[in-house]
Amino acid sequence: MKKTTFAALTAAGTAAAAAASAPFFRRQNTDLAASHYVFRSPKVKGALEGFRITQVSDLHNREFGGDNCMLLALVEAQLPDLIVITGDLLDSYRPDRRIALSAAGRLARLAPCCYVTGNHEHRLSPEGLAAFCRELEDVGVTVLRDEAMVLGLGTGFRLIGVDCPHGETEVLQTLMENRPAEELNLLLSHKPHYAAAYERAGVDLVLTGHAHGGQWRLPGGVGLYAPGQGPLPRYTAGAYRLGKTVMYVSRGLGNSCFPQRLNNKPELVTIILRGQK
Predict the structure, then answer these.
(1) pTM attached to this predicted model
(2) Which pLDDT belongs to residue 4?
(3) Measuring CA to CA, which residue among 264, 191, 271, 272 is closest to residue 32?
(4) Band of the pLDDT at 119, cuts 50, 70, 90?
């Protein structure tokens, strides 16, 4: 066989293989998965029993269907009592506020909605970040920047939100001071690799993202790489118990500088609160 013929056949075969695999790789980035976890605690009482918290994390200005209609339909199907956005709603490489604000405003019409910043928002200028947070408030989202609030449910439920750079600092310790011992506390913080600080602060429940599921998930559910953790990271997806603290890590929804997911479809997380028998 002539070299030119062999090269042509090789090129044709490569192109055919790429075309055949393209739908598979596209679905890895576009097929939404809904994950459900039950968090049990003796602090869950009264109106908190069965309370549903849906987490939107790391959207990175991504759209699932026109104006994020597919994502919003999936969120609505979870019947959330509270929606939380755990950072990187924007992408610093594609800082289009229109997509982020449209999604956030429509989420806020489904249920009360709270937001904490991620590292991509903190790449904005201080003025740009402040303006974005004001715009989120204008569309009905509660922005928590190193703040705590008690949800008025007739039972003790404190929601704490820390800015992305502050997950490991004394800010969290200060926010956790002087709280009633019987009060359930939920922390929203973008980065999971500050898990030891969350445990030291005595947080009951933590929702985080940032790791993107490890980008590519190897057999056994092992993530390949996560920012802040490096290769084969410890915290990539699912539930982690750290003493009396339980931390859930969302695989997130969008991508940033790493463009392709593998065995790691975009994830919407819902936590269901239950009392402990």
Answers:
(1) 0.91
(2) 53
(3) 264
(4) very high
